[in-house]
Design the sequence.
């Protein structure tokens, strides 16, 4: 998988010392690196130093004609920073595992972040669905979870026809969406 066009533009900008590209890469990646280092016995200054070293490595790679980025810049920068930080911890005697095997490390933390975010969204959806009330909750569960057809929903819920059931399902879905995003935006 090749990195998308925007990332290629950022790499070209970095290679050409374009300050906007450097700022964008910094803005999009530093907080992630800082969080990793702060959570692993480091300081803000350590994070800045390590990130700077990673930016230099990325800059040197970006200047090479043969360099092809096969992942997101975020993944690449994180991998470099993680390796550099673990190496530094090992030198300081605060990390005992062998770091040499981390040469081609791809961070599990990104997958974990995505998984945690999805779990949080499911929890918000569950709360929104539970606060939706009846008959909307049962109507949506019938359609989406039990795969009931509109005619079956109409007869189960006492609607005159399938079109009325469909209309009510749409209204319930819009209420659920409103509840979900109200709770989702509070968590942001």
Sequence:
């Amino acid at each position: 998988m090749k990195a998308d066009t925007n990332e290629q533009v950022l790499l070209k900008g970095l290679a050409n010392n374009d300050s906007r590209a450097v700022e964008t890469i910094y803005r999009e990646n530093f907080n992630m690196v800082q969080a990793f280092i702060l959570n692993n016995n480091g300081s803000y200054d350590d994070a800045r130093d390590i990130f700077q070293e990673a930016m230099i490595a990325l800059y040197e790679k970006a200047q090479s004609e043969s360099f092809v980025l096969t992942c997101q810049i975020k993944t690449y920068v994180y991998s470099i920073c993680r390796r550099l930080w673990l190496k530094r911890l090992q030198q300081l005697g605060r990390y005992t595992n062998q770091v040499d095997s981390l040469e081609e490390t791809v961070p599990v933390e990104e997958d974990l972040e995505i998984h945690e975010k999805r779990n949080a969204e499911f929890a918000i959806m569950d709360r929104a669905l539970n606060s939706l009330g009846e008959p909307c909750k049962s109507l949506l569960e019938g359609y989406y979870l039990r795969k009931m057809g509109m005619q079956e929903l109409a007869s189960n819920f006492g609607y005159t026809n399938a079109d009325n059931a469909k209309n009510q399902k749409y209204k319930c879905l819009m209420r659920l969406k409103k509840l979900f995003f109200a709770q989702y935006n509070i968590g942001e």
Summary: The chain is about 75% helix and 0% strand.
